[in-house]
Specification:
alpha+beta; Arc Repressor Mutant, subunit A; 2 domains; two-stranded antiparallel ribbon; 10 helices; 13% strand; elongated; disordered N terminus
């Protein structure tokens, strides 16, 4: 469920839920959502019982700058000490922060949830939303998180633009590794061929992937303009290719190198 990250001089390793990035919560919650999820993920590790306050004291001697000090620190959408990028957001920090809070507050109140002001408030919302569970046992307070986090759109009325962006992020995270593996094969194993006669079965065997995953990767390669799929002289639909039927994969390497970071494999 989690992946561990070592911390300088810790008494316990921090652990982050694997589903955090693909779920899209970091694009919805105040900035402390990330360290709060890490803190709860760490509290879920075997051997820990107690409150989140106890954990902050154990690891950080009671103060963790990433959450603004302690659990009663005020939530913000921007880092107070970061240099503001006026080119990206010319309205300035205060106006941008106010706009984010208005959007966030509207989503929560529309869905019937209280608007959190502190990290502690947000941790209670995690329990309400099912992002975390807290149970009092004879040995003390136990924390758990589900293997798959609920998605923001399942709980909050996201606007269409944000919904589309989160869907795109999840799709990219799903297909990105598959596409990287296919590109690695074409670049490092085949030496960037202008054209190759192949099939989904062959590509799957060469890359160690499932046929359906290769089909997804191939479709993304075509959609990006880096390749064409042909049967004879006629274009073919990459998403409808049969596993055993051969096709010509025609690459546009100039387009590829102009628009992508080349995959490099260290042997």
């Amino acid at each position: 469920m989690t992946e561990k990250a070592s911390v300088p001089g810790p008494r316990r390793d921090l652990a982050m839920h694997n589903d955090w990035w693909v779920s899209g919560w970091e694009h919805v919650l105040p900035r402390q959502g990330f360290p709060l999820t890490m803190l709860i993920g760490t509290a879920c590790q075997p051997g820990f019982t107690g409150s989140l306050d106890d954990l902050v004291h154990e690891i950080f001697d009671g103060r963790w700058d990433m959450i603004g000090g302690d659990l009663d620190g005020a939530l913000t959408f921007s880092w107070p000490d970061e240099e503001w990028d006026y080119e990206a957001a010319p309205e300035g920090r205060e106006a941008c922060e106010a706009a984010r809070w208005e959007q966030f507050s509207t989503m929560l109140t529309t869905a019937g949830f209280p608007v959190p002001k502190t990290v502690r408030d947000l941790s209670e919302l995690y329990l309400t939303w099912g992002l975390a569970r807290r149970e009092e046992t004879p040995d003390g307070t136990r924390w758990t998180m589900p293997a798959a986090l609920p998605l923001p759109g399942d709980l909050l009325p996201l606007d269409p633009e944000l919904t589309e962006r989160l869907d795109g992020i999840r799709w990219t995270m799903r297909t990105g590794p598959l596409l990287d593996t296919l590109i690695d094969h074409l670049v490092n194993d085949l030496g960037e061929p202008a054209e190759t006669l192949t099939s989904l079965d062959r590509l799957a065997a060469a890359t160690g992937q499932d046929v359906d995953d290769v089909r997804l990767a191939l479709a993304e390669l075509v959609k990006s303009g880096d390749a064409r799929v042909q049967r004879g002289e006629e274009p073919a639909d990459a998403e409808r290719l049969e596993a055993h039927r051969r096709f010509r994969l025609v690459m546009d390497w100039e387009h590829f190198h102009e628009n992508r970071i080349q995959v490099s494999r260290g042997d």
